Amino acid sequence: MTYTVAKGNQLTDPDHVTPADNAVDLRSDTVTRPSEEMRRAMAAAEVGDDVYGEDPTVNQLQKRAAEIFGKEAALYVPTGCMGNLICIKVWTHHGNEVICEDRSHVNLYELASMSAIAGCMPRAVRGGADGILTWGQIEASIRPKIYYDSQTALVCLENTSNMAGGTVYPTERVDEISDRAHALGLKVHLDGARIFNAAAALNDNVANMTKKVDSVMFCLSKGLGAPIGSMIVGSKEFIERARVYRKMFGGGMRQVGVVAAAGLLALEKSPLRLHEDHENARHLALGIAQIPGLKIDPASVKTNIVIFDCAATGMNAVELCDALYERGIWAQDTAFYSVRMVTHWNVGRAGIERALQELKTVVQRKKGQVA
Ligand code: TLP
């Protein structure tokens, strides 16, 4: 049997893969569509050639990102994957090892680019159930400084931790890991695709949360709602080197201010509303916990990602997602018996209630068949 993914996550027939207007799409917060305000800003954006550094909207976005993170500089990149890869490339040499969590995006979902392109070996470490690494776990995976061992160059953290259910690193942990890594000559990169969700959960600001790491990648195109784009932030020198790799990887863009204009709005306004997504996620998790056969600890849901276990329903994750898909609810299978639903600004409370109702129906129907 070949393992396939749920229908809602296949790229087969383009007519099929666009959710109907009334579908509740909880596959990811990447599905968010730009607001009317964003579209207006995009239409009115001032632009120039960004490869020459001449796009005023991009320059403004980069300046604001650096300010908000309290770092010297920032660079606009097309995607989170490219942002992570650029950072890894800057901080490593071919043959180095990169310590990351087992379930992290850089380890599982970036098509091994760290190896294929940056020439590095992921040293994947299993964190706790919450996907949060301790210094002890990291330290135990650092290679001895001896010529016949490959050398550890970088620690890569992920906050929030996507596949652990949107869990959040305590800032003291990030600080401790950074201090200790630096003392050993290692760099620390933060995949902060959803760092603003983490900030909303901690009621803290991203500058404080990332003050000790060497580089941060964060996404404008997820919960913040921009259609495209991520940012990397760090020192001036780091960003100058990053700019070279962005071009090398084909990410030099021209009049991209038309997109950056939406990114600016996403950066300024969207963080203020993320707590709504978190409340919806918590409501969803509480409802799921009430459905016999589905397993989740609602207390573990701190941000906008809800991951639950469906093993006791008699369906695996693909079967459950496919059944939901037929009823207009889109979810993502993340492991054989594990389903992910991500809340975001295009699904309000009514959509969450509908998802719960349909989940109940699908699980009960299966039970009826089995009984
Ligand atoms: N995550 C996507 C999928 O690729 C799994 C999602 O739906 O959650 N870092 C983290 C932590 C991410 O979750 C993602 C995307 C990325 C990096 C990559 O961002 P993009 O898709 O912009 O390359």
Question: Describe it for me?
Answer:
The chain has 371 residues and is of the alpha/beta class. Helices cover 41% and strands 15% of the residues. It folds into two domains: 7-28 and 273-366, Aspartate Aminotransferase, domain 1; 45-255, Aspartate Aminotransferase, domain 2 (3-Layer(aba) Sandwich). The strands form three sheets. The protein has a seven-stranded mixed sheet, sandwiched between helices. The chain has a three-stranded antiparallel sheet with strand order 9-12-11, with helices on one face. Helix 3 runs parallel beside helix 12 (257-269). The longest helix is centred in the last third of the chain and has 22 residues, at 349-370. The chain is globular. The two termini are 26 Å apart. The model has no long low-confidence stretch (mean pLDDT 95). Bound molecules: ligand TLP. Residues 28, 30, 79-81, 84, 105, 109, 158, 162, 191, 193, 219, 221, 230 line the site of ligand TLP.
